[in-house]
Specification:
Elements (H helix, E strand, L loop, with lengths): L22 E4 L9 H8 L2 H17 L7 E5 L2 E7 L4 E9 L2 E10 L6 H14 L4
Parallel strand pairs: 1-5
Antiparallel strand pairs: 2-3, 3-4, 4-5
Length: about 130
Amino acid sequence: MKFVAALPKVQVMKRVAVPPKLTVSFFRQEASGSEPVREWLKSLPGREKKAIGMDIMAAQFGWPRGLPLVDHIDGDIWEVRTKLENRIARVLFVVDGTVMVLLHGFIKKGQKTPQPDLDLATDRLKRLRGKR
């Protein structure tokens, strides 16, 4: 006599692609056409680039997000916070409708966001909105 064990039914789940809530765009300098955040990212080591990119993507797909990944800085400016191996990176951005515009990226050296970095992001936001 053969014994056959009853096998449980296996449910096959379809993988559904969830679209991002925000489209990512890089701030572009009008005069030169350069994209400072993209250039900054390219200058980083591969592992750091990937970590920052993954955090930007998490913010993009999960918007609105809060701490520890995303924090409000000032006015319309937000930051993506990435903890790297031995330092901390920040990408300042603005959400304009369904577009996440990356304004400025830097390595943070202290507790507080340096005023020159915030000023640069604010200036780029003004230029983005045509107020300068």
